[in-house]
Design a protein that fits this description.
Elements lengths: L1 H10 L1 H5 L8 E6 L12 E6 L13 H10 L17 E6 L9 H18 L1 E6 L9 H16 L3 E5 L20 E6 L23 E4 L3 E4 L10 E4 L2 H18 L5 H11 L12 E2 L2 H6 L5
Parallel strand pairs: 1-3, 1-4, 2-3, 4-5, 5-6, 6-7, 7-10
Antiparallel strand pairs: 8-9
Helix pairs in contact: 3-6, 4-5
Length: about 300
């Protein structure tokens, strides 16, 4: 477990020296909510609950807290050792999933629409969606879901979606990761091998997916704590964990280049990923944060 976490930080090794930590960037996380964890103190710009309508941030599952910690946890409870990728980024938390990590279509659409209506108010630049449905979804619902996600992209937001855990067969990328516009993320282990259940493309429209692969196996991040007697960190695996690695990396790049557009971000990722051989090519390859920030691959 430690080796995987250390490798994630190795890819980010230059960010600390250069003080590129996600400052000035806000990431919206659509998931199960957020626990009152010290690693997020003072950086939650807004909380919207599409499940129960509560006003104060909470997480009755733990999934969303773990995801948010990967993208932007400060590492306060570990003296910075287990910080997320962009530890100074701000967060907008949109709870669209219940305590079982499930949500009906209307709740997810409510969250997407709320994000679209409020992103300018809270300065959101990146939207992380570690949520996905199988490809047997009703066609009408699938169309509406993808349309709402693509509205965020068309508004200029960087939308990053997990590939889902329905793989490894071809055509198993979860919806809305099948959208040709968004950046879809699959999961690899610390040594670059694809995780067997990570969703793979192509989509029905023959779009190569996922575009990017990132660490998603035994990732240490913030636990769903309600009091200080509980362990502050826990381990989870899946493409849900890989997506916020990329969201955090995008926040770092926006800290360096605040005016970068979502299309420019996509092109930058494409040109700086590390190619992977074999079946787990992941489209562009594996995320390398150091190369992303420098804008070049090492030969």
């Amino acid at each position: 477990m430690d080796r995987v976490k250390k490798e994630v930080h190795y890819w980010c090794k230059d960010t600390i020296n250069r003080r590129i930590t996600g400052q000035g960037v806000t990431v919206a996380v659509l998931d199960t909510g957020l626990a009152p964890h010290p690693d997020f103190r003072g950086r939650v710009a807004a909380f919207k609950d599409c499940i129960q309508g509560r006003q104060r941030a909470y997480d009755d599952s733990g999934h969303g807290t773990h995801v948010a910690g990967i993208a932007a946890g400060s590492g306060r409870m570990s003296k910075g050792i287990l910080a997320g990728i962009a530890p100074e980024a701000k967060l907008v938390i949109v709870k669209v999933l219940n305590d079982k990590g499930e949500g009906d279509m209307e709740q997810i659409l409510d969250g997407l629409r709320w994000t679209y209506e409020n992103w300018e108010r809270f300065g959101v630049r990146i939207v992380n969606i570690s949520v996905g449905a199988k490809d047997n979804m009703d066609q009408t619902k699938e169309t509406v879901l993808i349309e709402e996600v693509e509205k965020l992209w068309d508004a200029g937001l960087i939308v990053i979606v997990s590939a889902g855990n329905f793989g490894p067969e071809a055509g198993t990328v979860a919806i809305p990761g099948t959208s040709r516009k968004v950046i879809t993320v699959g999961a690899v282990t610390g040594n670059g091998k694809g995780i067997g259940y990570s969703g793979q493309g192509p989509t029905e429209a023959c779009v190569v997916k996922p575009e990017v692969m990132a660490p998603g196996y035994q990732i240490i991040s913030c636990n769903n704590i309600s009091n200080m007697k509980q362990k502050p960190y826990t381990v989870k695996s899946g493409t849900s964990m890989a997506a916020p690695v990329v969201s955090g990396a995008a926040a770092l790049l926006l800290s360096k280049y605040p005016d970068m557009s979502n299309v420019e971000m996509k092109l930058r990722l494409r040109s700086t990923c590390e190619p992977l051989s074999g079946a787990w090519h992941g489209g562009w390859g594996r995320l390398r944060v150091d190369w992303l920030l420098e804008g070049k691959r090492e030969l």
